[in-house]
Amino acid sequence: MGTTFSVKWVSNDPGSVERIAPKLEQSLAAVNQSMSTYMEDSELSVLNREPAGSVTEVSEGLFQVLSLSQRISESSDGAFDVTVGPLVNLWGFGPDGRITHAPEQAEIDRIRAHTGYRKLHLDPNGRKVTRDAALYVDLSGIAKGYGVDELARVLEGEGVDSYLVEVGGELRARGTKPDGSPWRIAIESPVAGERDVQRIIEVHEIGVATSGDYRNYFEENGIRFSHTIDPATGRPISHKLASVTVLSPTCAEADGLATMFTVMGAERGFQYAVDNGVAAFFIVKSDEGFVERMTPAFEPYLTE
Fold first, then answer.
1. pTM of the shown model
2. How far, rounded to the nearest angstrom, does the alpha carbon of residue 9 sit from its chain's CA centroid?
3. pLDDT, tens only, 57-76
4. Does a structural domain hold residue 216?
5. Which residues are Mg(2+)-binding (predicted)?
6. Which of 39, 67, 219, 261 could form a disulfide bond with 244, CB atoms 3.0-4.6 angstroms apart?
């Protein structure tokens, strides 16, 4: 996944680290082997090389993530779309490496013709996947969250009921710290080049994911191009939403929703979150600095 991970848990067993740590490593390796776009022999890479129209049976984990992705796509009218991978690559944010010049509109239009979540079909009978076109599926907007959930699953399978799991900034918490106090998570202020805390939340039995455009981008002629691509235009987002943090029962869902909100922007995204009871915290750029907006479902998690 090209990032770091950390796992903390509460246990009276002095041998729990030696027993559990290898299983955690194995679970993340399995997620990578299934969903990485950087590994040529991953299950997803093999799927992406299949001819258009072919039917491919996939693993339970991959099918689960694809199914959740499609549900989020349907609910957002395509703001979240795992088939935008070729556009991500075109803009220099995929495994093909960085670029220094924005691509021509004609090239964007050509590649957009080979994207679209509606061209991806899932059949739960046998976990079959069919692509109407030569789609390139990229799960980078949701797979990290699934990796977090897999780590949590391993811990719970080992009888651990208090933990804090993190992969690349996406988290999931359960139970409490050894002193009985809740896990406390810092939401980062979206200032490029700095590591300041915007807010602190207390979490339990919840997944946490943050998405933003302030770390991964390139600039050309004074214009910043974000790594988040709007499927509707084939171009990086250009609105005022700096970052959004989402709380959801699973980290995979939180990860996908955070990516979706980043594409939607502050107004449309906030309204969706309120209408659907999503706990979300938006940080929006303004002429006077950053403005916070949070949904009613998010407020209970804030500390003073």
1. 0.92
2. 23
3. 999 999 999 999 999 999 99
4. yes
5. 141, 255, 259
6. 261
